[in-house]
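Record type: monomer structure entry
Structure origin: computed from sequence
Chain ID: A
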Amino acid sequence: MLTLVTYPPAFGQPSGSPFCVKALYLLNLSGLPWQRKDTPDPRNWPKGKLPALWVDDEIIGDSDNIRTWLEEHGARFDEGLSDLDRATSRAFIRMAEEHMYFHIVMDRWGDKAVWPLVRDTYFSAIPALIRNWITRGIRRMLLKGMDTQGLGRLTAGERLDRIEPDLQAITDRLWHGPFLFGPTPTAADASVAAMLGAMAGTPGGTALSRRVREDLILTQYMARVAEALG
């Protein structure tokens, strides 16, 4: 039996991490039997990150590696897609995971009003009396990395302008069918819908979370993916 090690549910999503949600969606799409193990602590797993897939005495870390393993064991996530659609799918996945994701990070870790809600969810295992003290350095280091990456130097309004073309690209694809590449979900839906769900679920009512929640096309799409793969 495959075991997906993942962060617990949070903010109305199956997991507090969109990459864990992606892995969960891919496992359901694969048709293979699996079970779930929740933990708030990633330190004992590959590279200190989650999700991880536990297969007998082997542990596969990282959602991309999990996808590869599943495909090597029979999963066909992009069945029926043309070479052009496969290439576009890859681009959409990278857009979601290498750009949209970091907007979620800034929304959750960079917004001073949102951060306490996120901190008390992510680090609930740490006693409340010392939680702020312990997590202060973690947050400072993460935001320094976001400043180096560049997104951390933008205002909330500038970030919203930056991500709008991504959201529009998703919407444009969805005019052609219920999922990004036709009538059935594919690997791209697992990534993109997971990121959109994390955006919409961010607590505190940020400009980005409102933008996604108030978009009927995106919210209906997320609901379809959750029904098909959740």
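Annotation 1: The chain has a mean pLDDT of 96.
Annotation 2: The radius of gyration is 18 Å.
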